[in-house]
Amino acid sequence: MTEPKMNTESLGVWSDPFDFKVEQARTVAYAEATNDDNGRYLSGEIAPPVFAIVPVFDGMIPPLFKVVPDSLIPFVVHGEQDMVFHRPIVPGTTLTSRAKVTGFASKSSGTTVSLKLETRDESGELVNEQWMVSFFRGYQAGETVGELAPAHSFPEELRDAQPIAEVVQHVDDDQTFRYSEASGDPMPIHLDEEFAKSAGLPGIIAHGLCTMAFTSRAVIESVAAGEPTRLKRLAVRFSRPVLPGQDVTTRIWDKGDGTYAFESTSSSGDVVIKDGLAEIG
Q1: Can you give the residue ranges of the MaoC-like domain (predicted)?
Q2: Considering only CA atoms, which of 62, 71, 244, 248 is closest in space to residue 167?
Protein backbone atom coordinates (compact mmCIF):
# COMPACT_ATOMS: atom_id res chain seq x y z
CA MET A 1 0.00 0.00 0.00
CA THR A 2 1.29 3.47 -0.88
CA GLU A 3 1.95 5.71 2.10
CA PRO A 4 -0.16 8.90 2.17
CA LYS A 5 1.84 12.00 1.34
CA MET A 6 2.46 15.12 3.38
CA ASN A 7 1.21 18.36 1.84
CA THR A 8 4.45 20.32 1.83
CA GLU A 9 2.77 23.31 0.16
CA SER A 10 1.18 24.16 3.51
CA LEU A 11 4.48 24.08 5.42
CA GLY A 12 5.37 27.44 6.95
CA VAL A 13 1.95 28.94 6.22
CA TRP A 14 0.40 30.73 9.21
CA SER A 15 -3.24 30.04 9.96
CA ASP A 16 -5.76 32.84 10.11
CA PRO A 17 -5.63 34.53 13.53
CA PHE A 18 -8.08 33.26 16.14
CA ASP A 19 -9.17 34.99 19.36
CA PHE A 20 -9.76 33.82 22.92
CA LYS A 21 -11.25 35.85 25.76
CA VAL A 22 -9.50 34.96 29.02
CA GLU A 23 -12.06 34.60 31.80
CA GLN A 24 -10.93 34.69 35.42
CA ALA A 25 -13.13 31.77 36.41
CA ARG A 26 -11.45 29.66 33.71
CA THR A 27 -7.90 30.44 34.83
CA VAL A 28 -8.75 29.73 38.47
CA ALA A 29 -10.45 26.48 37.45
CA TYR A 30 -7.32 25.48 35.54
CA ALA A 31 -5.16 26.01 38.62
CA GLU A 32 -7.56 23.98 40.74
CA ALA A 33 -7.73 21.22 38.10
CA THR A 34 -3.94 20.88 38.22
CA ASN A 35 -3.77 20.96 42.05
CA ASP A 36 -1.79 24.21 42.04
CA ASP A 37 -2.47 26.44 45.04
CA ASN A 38 -0.23 29.37 44.08
CA GLY A 39 -1.99 32.44 45.44
CA ARG A 40 -1.54 34.48 42.26
CA TYR A 41 -3.54 31.87 40.34
CA LEU A 42 -6.27 31.26 42.90
CA SER A 43 -6.86 34.99 43.34
CA GLY A 44 -7.39 35.28 39.58
CA GLU A 45 -4.50 37.74 39.17
CA ILE A 46 -2.68 35.70 36.51
CA ALA A 47 -3.13 32.34 34.80
CA PRO A 48 -0.86 29.37 35.49
CA PRO A 49 1.87 29.18 32.80
CA VAL A 50 0.65 25.95 31.16
CA PHE A 51 -2.81 27.53 30.77
CA ALA A 52 -1.17 28.86 27.59
CA ILE A 53 -2.44 25.70 25.86
CA VAL A 54 -6.09 26.61 26.43
CA PRO A 55 -6.38 29.65 24.10
CA VAL A 56 -4.75 27.71 21.24
CA PHE A 57 -6.26 24.26 21.76
CA ASP A 58 -9.03 24.45 19.16
CA GLY A 59 -7.06 26.52 16.67
CA MET A 60 -3.92 24.36 16.45
CA ILE A 61 -5.49 21.24 14.97
CA PRO A 62 -6.71 22.49 11.54
CA PRO A 63 -3.23 23.75 10.45
CA LEU A 64 -1.72 20.41 11.48
CA PHE A 65 -4.03 18.46 9.20
CA LYS A 66 -3.50 20.78 6.28
CA VAL A 67 -0.05 19.17 6.13
CA VAL A 68 -0.74 15.73 7.59
CA PRO A 69 -3.25 13.47 5.76
CA ASP A 70 -6.52 12.96 7.65
CA SER A 71 -6.05 9.18 7.38
CA LEU A 72 -3.25 9.43 9.96
CA ILE A 73 -5.45 10.89 12.74
CA PRO A 74 -5.83 7.50 14.51
CA PHE A 75 -2.06 7.15 14.77
CA VAL A 76 -1.17 10.49 16.38
CA VAL A 77 0.21 10.92 19.89
CA HIS A 78 1.40 14.08 21.63
CA GLY A 79 5.18 13.84 21.64
CA GLU A 80 6.54 17.11 23.03
CA GLN A 81 5.49 20.57 24.19
CA ASP A 82 7.78 23.58 24.50
CA MET A 83 6.47 26.87 25.90
CA VAL A 84 8.34 30.20 25.92
CA PHE A 85 6.78 32.82 28.20
CA HIS A 86 7.21 36.53 27.45
CA ARG A 87 4.56 37.82 29.86
CA PRO A 88 1.83 36.22 31.99
CA ILE A 89 -1.71 35.67 30.76
CA VAL A 90 -3.99 38.11 32.58
CA PRO A 91 -7.72 37.41 33.00
CA GLY A 92 -9.95 39.90 31.20
CA THR A 93 -7.72 40.19 28.13
CA THR A 94 -8.45 38.92 24.65
CA LEU A 95 -5.60 36.94 23.12
CA THR A 96 -4.98 36.45 19.41
CA SER A 97 -3.07 33.40 18.24
CA ARG A 98 -1.93 31.77 15.03
CA ALA A 99 -0.30 28.44 14.14
CA LYS A 100 1.79 26.87 11.40
CA VAL A 101 3.44 23.54 10.70
CA THR A 102 7.13 24.22 10.22
CA GLY A 103 8.54 20.80 9.36
CA PHE A 104 8.52 17.04 9.81
CA ALA A 105 11.08 14.27 10.27
CA SER A 106 10.86 10.59 9.38
CA LYS A 107 12.04 8.21 12.14
CA SER A 108 12.39 4.43 12.27
CA SER A 109 9.11 4.04 14.20
CA GLY A 110 7.10 6.91 12.71
CA THR A 111 7.19 10.59 11.83
CA THR A 112 7.37 13.70 14.00
CA VAL A 113 5.61 16.89 12.93
CA SER A 114 6.55 20.28 14.42
CA LEU A 115 3.90 22.97 14.82
CA LYS A 116 4.64 26.49 16.06
CA LEU A 117 2.15 28.76 17.83
CA GLU A 118 2.33 32.37 18.89
CA THR A 119 -0.08 34.28 21.10
CA ARG A 120 -0.34 38.07 21.41
CA ASP A 121 -2.37 40.46 23.57
CA GLU A 122 -4.63 43.32 22.41
CA SER A 123 -1.66 45.65 21.93
CA GLY A 124 0.09 43.13 19.71
CA GLU A 125 2.73 42.25 22.31
CA LEU A 126 3.94 38.65 22.29
CA VAL A 127 2.59 36.76 25.31
CA ASN A 128 3.99 33.33 24.56
CA GLU A 129 5.34 31.07 21.85
CA GLN A 130 4.86 27.31 21.75
CA TRP A 131 6.10 24.30 19.84
CA MET A 132 3.98 21.17 19.70
CA VAL A 133 5.53 17.99 18.34
CA SER A 134 3.10 15.30 17.22
CA PHE A 135 4.26 11.75 16.58
CA PHE A 136 2.50 9.65 13.95
CA ARG A 137 3.11 6.01 14.86
CA GLY A 138 4.18 3.70 12.05
CA TYR A 139 4.01 6.33 9.32
CA GLN A 140 7.13 6.83 7.21
CA ALA A 141 7.26 10.24 5.54
CA GLY A 142 10.55 9.14 3.98
CA GLU A 143 12.33 12.47 4.47
CA THR A 144 13.05 15.35 6.81
CA VAL A 145 11.71 18.69 5.62
CA GLY A 146 11.58 22.22 7.03
CA GLU A 147 12.28 23.56 10.50
CA LEU A 148 11.97 21.22 13.48
CA ALA A 149 11.13 22.17 17.07
CA PRO A 150 14.14 23.23 19.17
CA ALA A 151 15.99 20.47 21.01
CA HIS A 152 15.85 20.23 24.82
CA SER A 153 17.54 16.89 25.55
CA PHE A 154 18.61 15.88 29.05
CA PRO A 155 22.38 16.29 29.61
CA GLU A 156 23.61 12.78 30.36
CA GLU A 157 26.56 14.12 32.36
CA LEU A 158 24.08 15.26 35.04
CA ARG A 159 22.94 11.71 35.80
CA ASP A 160 25.78 11.15 38.25
CA ALA A 161 24.88 14.34 40.14
CA GLN A 162 22.31 14.59 42.90
CA PRO A 163 19.16 16.50 41.91
CA ILE A 164 18.73 19.80 43.72
CA ALA A 165 15.04 19.13 44.30
CA GLU A 166 12.61 16.24 44.30
CA VAL A 167 8.87 16.96 44.31
CA VAL A 168 6.12 14.34 44.71
CA GLN A 169 2.60 15.14 43.48
CA HIS A 170 -0.50 12.95 43.49
CA VAL A 171 -2.80 12.43 40.51
CA ASP A 172 -6.30 12.33 41.96
CA ASP A 173 -8.84 9.73 40.90
CA ASP A 174 -11.02 12.48 39.39
CA GLN A 175 -8.09 14.49 37.97
CA THR A 176 -8.82 13.80 34.31
CA PHE A 177 -12.46 14.85 34.62
CA ARG A 178 -11.56 18.12 36.33
CA TYR A 179 -8.74 18.82 33.89
CA SER A 180 -10.90 18.04 30.86
CA GLU A 181 -13.53 20.58 31.91
CA ALA A 182 -11.03 23.31 32.79
CA SER A 183 -8.83 22.84 29.73
CA GLY A 184 -11.47 22.08 27.12
CA ASP A 185 -9.78 18.81 26.13
CA PRO A 186 -12.53 16.18 25.70
CA MET A 187 -10.39 13.29 24.38
CA PRO A 188 -12.13 10.06 25.46
CA ILE A 189 -8.90 8.26 26.47
CA HIS A 190 -8.96 10.59 29.50
CA LEU A 191 -12.64 10.11 30.35
CA ASP A 192 -13.93 6.74 29.14
CA GLU A 193 -12.42 3.59 30.66
CA GLU A 194 -13.67 1.23 27.96
CA PHE A 195 -12.59 3.51 25.13
CA ALA A 196 -9.12 3.85 26.65
CA LYS A 197 -8.79 0.07 26.89
CA SER A 198 -9.95 -0.33 23.29
CA ALA A 199 -7.09 1.97 22.31
CA GLY A 200 -4.60 -0.38 23.97
CA LEU A 201 -4.23 1.56 27.21
CA PRO A 202 -4.58 0.08 30.70
CA GLY A 203 -7.48 2.44 31.35
CA ILE A 204 -8.10 6.18 31.60
CA ILE A 205 -4.82 8.11 31.45
CA ALA A 206 -3.98 11.61 32.63
CA HIS A 207 -3.67 14.41 30.10
CA GLY A 208 -0.04 15.00 29.19
CA LEU A 209 -0.47 18.74 29.65
CA CYS A 210 -1.84 18.18 33.13
CA THR A 211 1.37 16.32 33.94
CA MET A 212 3.31 19.20 32.35
CA ALA A 213 1.42 21.62 34.61
CA PHE A 214 2.48 19.48 37.60
CA THR A 215 6.12 19.92 36.52
CA SER A 216 5.65 23.69 36.21
CA ARG A 217 4.56 23.83 39.84
CA ALA A 218 7.50 21.65 40.89
CA VAL A 219 9.95 23.93 39.08
CA ILE A 220 8.41 27.24 40.22
CA GLU A 221 8.26 26.19 43.87
CA SER A 222 11.74 24.63 43.86
CA VAL A 223 13.90 27.05 41.87
CA ALA A 224 11.84 30.22 41.30
CA ALA A 225 10.86 30.97 44.93
CA GLY A 226 7.21 30.39 44.03
CA GLU A 227 7.11 33.30 41.54
CA PRO A 228 5.45 32.16 38.27
CA THR A 229 6.62 35.12 36.18
CA ARG A 230 10.23 33.99 36.61
CA LEU A 231 9.53 30.91 34.46
CA LYS A 232 10.64 31.85 30.93
CA ARG A 233 10.59 28.46 29.21
CA LEU A 234 9.23 25.00 29.97
CA ALA A 235 9.81 22.09 27.58
CA VAL A 236 8.97 18.39 27.99
CA ARG A 237 8.80 15.12 26.10
CA PHE A 238 5.88 12.86 26.99
CA SER A 239 7.30 9.35 27.27
CA ARG A 240 4.78 7.16 29.15
CA PRO A 241 1.19 7.59 30.33
CA VAL A 242 0.27 8.57 33.88
CA LEU A 243 -2.69 6.88 35.53
CA PRO A 244 -5.14 8.37 38.03
CA GLY A 245 -4.19 7.42 41.57
CA GLN A 246 -0.46 7.45 40.87
CA ASP A 247 2.18 9.74 42.32
CA VAL A 248 4.44 11.73 40.00
CA THR A 249 7.94 12.48 41.24
CA THR A 250 9.84 15.28 39.50
CA ARG A 251 13.60 15.51 40.00
CA ILE A 252 15.38 18.73 39.06
CA TRP A 253 19.05 19.29 38.24
CA ASP A 254 20.85 22.64 37.95
CA LYS A 255 22.49 23.15 34.53
CA GLY A 256 23.77 26.61 35.46
CA ASP A 257 22.94 30.09 34.11
CA GLY A 258 19.31 29.84 35.25
CA THR A 259 18.53 26.65 33.32
CA TYR A 260 17.36 23.40 34.88
CA ALA A 261 16.91 19.86 33.58
CA PHE A 262 14.21 17.62 35.01
CA GLU A 263 12.56 14.23 34.67
CA SER A 264 9.35 12.86 36.14
CA THR A 265 8.56 9.27 37.09
CA SER A 266 5.29 7.66 38.11
CA SER A 267 4.81 5.46 41.16
CA SER A 268 5.01 2.44 38.83
CA GLY A 269 8.61 3.39 38.06
CA ASP A 270 8.01 4.61 34.50
CA VAL A 271 9.73 7.76 33.32
CA VAL A 272 6.69 9.76 32.18
CA ILE A 273 8.40 13.08 31.36
CA LYS A 274 11.80 13.04 29.67
CA ASP A 275 14.08 15.82 28.43
CA GLY A 276 12.52 18.39 30.73
CA LEU A 277 14.00 21.88 30.49
CA ALA A 278 13.14 24.99 32.50
CA GLU A 279 14.61 28.45 32.13
CA ILE A 280 14.28 30.84 35.07
CA GLY A 281 14.73 34.61 34.86
Answers
A1: 162-260
A2: 248
Residue 237: the pLDDT is 98
Phi, psi of 181 (to 5 degrees): -65, -45
What is the residue range of 208's domain? 156-280
**Sign of the four-CA dihedral 88, 92, 94, 98:** positive
Distance, in Å, from the CA atom of 60 to the CA atom of 66, rounded to the nearest integer, reads: 11
| Residue 248 Rama label (left phi>0; alpha psi -120 to 50; beta) | beta
Distances, alpha carbon 148 to alpha carbons 17, 29, 181, 276, in Å: 22, 33, 31, 17
Segments of the chain with pLDDT less than 50: none
Residue 3 lies in a domain: no
Question: What is the signed CA dihedral for 173, 81, 213, 41, rounded to 10 degrees?
Answer: -140
Evaluate whether residue 191 is within a structural domain.
yes
Put simply, whether the predicted model's pTM sits higher than 0.90 gets the answer yes
**Does 1 fall in a domain?**
no
- Asked, for residue 2, whether it belongs to a domain, the answer is no
